[in-house]
């Protein structure tokens, strides 16, 4: 596997030791691989809720939740069961983050938690406290698009565009941590994302163009 | 329908004109056509143009990569309520009573509405048949019964569970073959009708119906049986005969179906995720008895449709009622399960095919009988490819709809044709094999209809075969190991369709800036961009300089994004309006250039000048301000094609079609049954490509959907419960990044000499040949035919052991 931080097994298990037939049998339920949640991100979420104290009772009514979104501290009032994507879209009007399946299987809702992609439909807002949340609205530097955004535009790596914000977030995270990413890296980075228009080849081309430029510049 | 306006004349005077015709870079010649007198001069080939034919960036790309593009899903209005449907858990039931009181008194609930009229279903021919029922009969698990609107989505979800519905269950049948049995439970208590949508589907009126089986339907006009099948088969040297099965596929647009309805003071505004803004307006007007002038439909961005997003649907009816009752805007977006179960699908098929041919490939008989189920909706035919592609004197395509207790089908990217081509092009491959002809050679001999698509395919076969490396194709089953590789090809055909009501307005503001208006939506195909490119050409501007205003029924009538017709419909009137506006502008600016002849005025790079004195050109903005002409507005309506249509109306069909040829290379693991599509080369035609980059994107998308259909997708119904088992995107398998093959697209420029842009469509033609090309490659790899889709391990292992 190209990236050690990411598990693509359907149950999050390490893939070594699984026979080919067993893998096909279990993996056979989804061609795209359902798991996006980073193993590290999930662990961090558990850690942060432990720090809050095991006996803390919250809700069911709205409670104050402090979030850091796109570099700004954002206090919100929401029920503890509220997902991060619900906060972003319905409390804060940040509708760039989409919902395609609402169960962590399409990755349209991808945002960054501390720079790592995460499914915001599968993340409780409470668990995003203390973490730096980046959404598609916060990716560009003012009018300067992130190189991945710019490459998506140049390579027509989008059609209807509904999956695009999530795709961009995962691809930009890949480039940030591996500036000279190769094709297998790109395929892995978006293996949990669904695009029904079929933009995958143009996404590959876009991200590889950024990687190639990075290699040329030696970054 | 289209509004009348001053610009169009139904029968414009004609002039005889010589026009360029043919495939650019190959064979072109002059043809004489009767052209409307107000038509601009024919465009030269793309290489000689500045804006048209250039692979410029999609105009709304930046909005899409920054998350600022607002879809219906993103509409948030002050005081907006959230809706949730109440759906029936049983596949077939009579609704006895509905008690909404607990839901209505739930805190935060603002309105509850029970559905009185069911859309998205075939309709009983006898309106009295179920007239005594108070509520629509439930005929599939997941059918809408009522809906709740509340202050938050969570409250709506909770309250929907509090609506108490008493059902009387009825026997159900959810499988195609089971439903064909004389003893099967009956889905409808009498014969039904099913009109088509703009995307296709539906079936002619008045067909016979016995039990759940409706037909025979011989398809579109001109598809009635010809000749004598038995005689044709008797004359044949070779007969190929086989049974093919295709599965139900669901559309899975990433943005689910939905609307936001905002009814206030007898005016209704609807934000819709739709493929046709006007279809939403027209149905809302019909069911709510409102004048169309009081309804506005807005669709800034639609997150995919693929054929299923037309009209207001049951959820839309409910949302509008809820908005009226609550006096507030109501957002009704389907969830992913509802989308799979109730928002449309491609019907399955069972096809029995017999084809007879002489030793040289001459076809003597084509006989096809097909059954398919679109659940509670009709339109499960196999398209028109059998009649459209290869001429044959003895021909019969007999198609039957079979009703089942399952969600309604909807048009889906080349409805019917995808299923039909899967069998037709495999049968042709088998025929070539039996005749010991190269599959390309067989097509050379039998693909002979005098149409533009025939000419396109002939050229495409050559260029694609060469690029693909067809000469490296080996005999079937050449690999000794468990992973076997093979190559296959298949041909495409789709109709070339135009909506002549399409009307485009071009305005020039008094500062010289140009904008274009049409109600068509952009579902991801690039409608904004191609409109701007065509208009920009007439003003010597860049497409980014053109203001494009679309996706709103306040603008002149635009076509549905269905049938691959938008670019063919909108670009010609856009060019005509832009041409007229530019000529008008030239006349008004001529006085600034020593009263030059307006015909000598030119526009280029944001400047205006006089030919022969290019150095004196000045900025258009400055000249416009000085001329003080107010505002120029021109409307133009889509003229009929210069040669006319074989079928005229809101959907006008040309005798020419769209072609395309695809080659696929696959690897089949015969031990596990896993098929991997490694490479696809497609040669495609769309008349004159307005933006080759965006065309290529659509072709890639069509191929990927074709691979997805061929290998992975399958709606799985549980016969006992009547429920779909995989109504989500993790168990409903689709192509993702890892399953995407290497794809290469070769696009030709074909000038048909039929309209002022000669642009045609691409979406559907790019999708139809893929599964057959893969199946033929499977045969080449393994020496076995796979006639059942999808090519998942179970079906593959069954085919290999047959």
UniProtKB/TrEMBL annotation, chain A:
* UniProt keyword Nucleus present: no
> Which keywords appear in this protein's UniProt record, sorted alphabetically?
2Fe-2S, Iron, Iron-sulfur, Metal-binding, Oxidoreductase
Return the InterPro entries for the record: 2Fe-2S-bd (IPR002888), 2Fe-2S-bd_dom_sf (IPR036884), 2Fe-2S_ferredoxin-like_sf (IPR036010), 2Fe-2S_ferredoxin-type (IPR001041), 2Fe2S_fd_BS (IPR006058), Beta-grasp_dom_sf (IPR012675), Diverse_Oxidoreductases (IPR051452), TAT_signal (IPR006311)
Gene3D superfamilies associated with the record: 3.10.20.30, [2Fe-2S]-binding domain
- Using the record's annotation, list all stretches that form the 2Fe-2S ferredoxin-type domain: 63-139
Matching PANTHER family: BLR6218 PROTEIN (PTHR44379:SF2), OXIDOREDUCTASE WITH IRON-SULFUR SUBUNIT (PTHR44379)
Kindly provide the name given to this protein in its UniProt entry.
Answer: Xanthine dehydrogenase YagT iron-sulfur-binding subunit
UniProtKB/TrEMBL annotation, chain B:
Q: Where is the Aldehyde oxidase/xanthine dehydrogenase a/b hammerhead domain?
A: 66-171
Q: Look up the EC number in the record and give it.
A: 1.17.1.4
* Swiss-Prot/TrEMBL keywords: Molybdenum, Oxidoreductase
Pfam families, per database record: Ald_Xan_dh_C, MoCoBD_1, MoCoBD_2
One GO molecular-function entry: xanthine dehydrogenase activity
The record, for InterPro entries, names: Ald_Oxase/Xan_DH_a/b (IPR000674), Ald_Oxase/Xan_DH_a/b_sf (IPR036856), Ald_Oxase/xanthine_DH-like (IPR016208), AldOxase/xan_DH_MoCoBD1 (IPR008274), AldOxase/xan_DH_MoCoBD2 (IPR046867), AldOxase/xan_DH_Mopterin-bd_sf (IPR037165)
EC class: oxidoreductase
Superkingdom of this protein's organism:
Bacteria
Q: Which SUPFAM superfamilies match?
A: CO dehydrogenase molybdoprotein N-domain-like, Molybdenum cofactor-binding domain
Q: Do the record's keywords include Oxidoreductase? A: yes
PANTHER family, alphabetized:
ALDEHYDE OXIDASE 1-RELATED, XANTHINE DEHYDROGENASE
Protein name (record): Xanthine dehydrogenase, molybdenum binding subunit
């Amino acid at each position: 596997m190209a990236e050690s931080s990411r598990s693509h097994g359907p149950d999050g298990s390490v893939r070594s030791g699984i026979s080919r037939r067993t893998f096909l049998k279990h993996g056979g339920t989804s061609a795209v691989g359902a798991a996006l949640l980073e193993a590290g991100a999930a662990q961090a979420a558990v850690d942060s809720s432990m720090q809050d104290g095991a006996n803390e009772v919250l809700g069911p009514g709205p409670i104050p939740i402090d979030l850091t979104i796109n570099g700004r501290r954002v206090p919100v009032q929401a029920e503890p069961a509220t997902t991060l994507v619900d906060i972003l879209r319905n409390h804060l009007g940040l509708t760039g983050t989409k919902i395609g399946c609402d169960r962590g299987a399409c990755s349209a809702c991808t945002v960054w938690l501390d720079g790592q992609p995460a499914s915001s439909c599968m993340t409780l807002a409470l668990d995003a406290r203390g973490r730096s949340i980046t959404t598609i609205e916060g990716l560009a530097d003012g009018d300067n698009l992130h190189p991945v955004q710019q490459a998506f535009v140049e390579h027509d790596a989008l059609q209807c565009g509904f999956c695009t914000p999530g795709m961009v977030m995962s691809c930009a995270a890949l480039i940030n941590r591996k500036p000279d990413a190769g094709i297998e890296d790109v395929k892995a980075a978006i293996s949990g994302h669904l695009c029904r228009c079929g933009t995958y080849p143009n996404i590959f081309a876009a991200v590889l163009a950024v990687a190639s430029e990075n290699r040329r510049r030696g970054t | 329908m289209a509004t009348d306006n001053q610009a169009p004349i139904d029968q414009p005077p004609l002039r005889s004109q010589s026009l360029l015709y043919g495939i650019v870079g190959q064979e072109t010649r002059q043809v004489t056509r009767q052209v409307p007198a107000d038509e601009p001069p024919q465009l030269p080939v793309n290489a000689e143009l500045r804006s048209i034919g250039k692979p410029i960036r999609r105009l709304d790309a930046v909005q899409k990569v920054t998350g600022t593009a607002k879809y219906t899903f993103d509409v948030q209005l002050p005081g907006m309520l959230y809706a949730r449907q109440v759906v029936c858990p049983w596949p077939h039931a009579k609704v006895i009573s509905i008690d909404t009181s607990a839901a209505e008194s739930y805190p935060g609930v603002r309105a509850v509405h029970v559905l009185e009229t069911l859309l998205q279903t075939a309709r009983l021919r006898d309106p009295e048949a179920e007239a005594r029922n108070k509520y629509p009969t439930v005929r599939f698990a997941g059918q809408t019964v009522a809906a709740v609107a509340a202050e938050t989505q969570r409250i709506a979800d909770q309250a929907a569970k509090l609506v108490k519905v008493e059902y009387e269950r009825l026997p159900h049948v959810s499988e195609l073959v089971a439903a064909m049995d004389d003893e099967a439970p009956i889905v409808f208590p009498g014969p039904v009708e099913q009109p088509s949508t703009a995307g296709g589907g539906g079936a002619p009126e008045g067909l016979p119906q016995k039990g759940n089986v409706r037909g025979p339907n011989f398809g579109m006009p001109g598809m009635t049986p010809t000749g004598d099948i038995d005689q044709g088969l008797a004359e044949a040297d070779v007969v190929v005969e086989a049974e093919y099965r295709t599965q139900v596929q669901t559309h899975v647009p990433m943005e689910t179906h939905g609307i936001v309805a905002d009814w206030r003071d007898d005016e209704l505004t609807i934000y819709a995720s739709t493929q046709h803004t006007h279809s939403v307006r027209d149905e809302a007007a019909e069911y709510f008895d409102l004048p169309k002038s009081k309804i506005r439909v807005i669709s800034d961005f639609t997150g995919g449709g693929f054929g299923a997003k037309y009209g207001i649907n049951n959820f839309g009816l409910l949302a509008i009622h809820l908005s009226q009752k609550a006096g507030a805007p109501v957002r009704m977006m389907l969830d992913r399960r509802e989308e799979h179960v109730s928002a449309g699908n491609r019907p399955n098929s069972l096809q029995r095919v017999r084809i007879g041919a002489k030793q040289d490939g001459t076809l003597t008989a084509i006989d096809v009988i097909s059954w398919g189920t679109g659940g509670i909706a009709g339109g499960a035919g196999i398209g028109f490819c059998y009649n459209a592609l290869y001429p044959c004197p003895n021909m019969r395509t007999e198609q039957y709809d079979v009703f089942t207790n399952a969600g309604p089908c909807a048009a889906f990217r080349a409805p019917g044709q995808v299923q039909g081509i899967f069998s037709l092009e495999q049968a042709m491959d088998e025929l070539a094999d039996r005749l010991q002809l190269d599959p390309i050679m067989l097509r050379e001999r039998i693909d002979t209809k005098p149409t533009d698509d025939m000419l396109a395919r002939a050229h495409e076969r050559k260029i694609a075969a060469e690029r693909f490396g067809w000469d490296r194709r080996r005999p079937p089953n050449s690999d000794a190991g468990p992973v076997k590789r093979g190559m296959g090809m298949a041909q495409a055909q789709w109709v070339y369709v135009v909506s002549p009501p399409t009307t485009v307005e071009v305005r020039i503001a008094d500062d010289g800036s140009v904008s274009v208006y049409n109600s068509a939506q952009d579902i991801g195909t690039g409608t904004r961009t191609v409109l701007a490119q065509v208009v920009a050409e007439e003003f010597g501007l860049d497409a980014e300089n053109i203001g494009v205003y679309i996706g709103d029924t306040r603008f002149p009538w635009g076509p549905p994004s269905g049938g691959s017709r938008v670019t063919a419909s909108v670009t010609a009137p856009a060019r005509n309006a832009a041409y007229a506006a530019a000529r008008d502008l030239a006349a008004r600016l001529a006085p600034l250039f020593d009263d030059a002849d307006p015909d000598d005025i030119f526009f280029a790079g944001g400047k205006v000048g006089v030919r022969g004195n290019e150095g004196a050109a000045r900025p258009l903005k400055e000249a416009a301000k000085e001329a003080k002409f107010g505002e120029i507005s021109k409307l133009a309506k889509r003229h009929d094609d210069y040669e006319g249509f074989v079928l005229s109306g809101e959907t006008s069909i040309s005798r020419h079609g769209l072609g395309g040829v695809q080659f696929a290379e696959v690897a089949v693991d015969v031990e596990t049954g896993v098929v991997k599509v490694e490479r696809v080369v497609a040669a495609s035609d769309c008349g004159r490509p307005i933006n080759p980059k965006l065309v290529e994107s659509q072709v890639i998308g069509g191929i990927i959907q074709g691979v997805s259909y061929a290998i992975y997708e399958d709606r799985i119904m549980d016969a006992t419960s009547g429920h779909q088992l995989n109504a989500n995107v993790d168990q409903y398998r689709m192509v993702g990044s890892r399953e995407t093959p290497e794809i290469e697209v070769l696009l030709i420029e074909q000038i048909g000499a039929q309209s002022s842009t000669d642009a045609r469509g691409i979406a559907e033609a790019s999708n139809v040949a893929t599964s057959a090309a893969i199946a033929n490659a499977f045969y080449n790899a393994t020496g076995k035919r796979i006639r059942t889709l999808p090519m998942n391990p179970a079906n593959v292992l069954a085919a290999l052991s047959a």
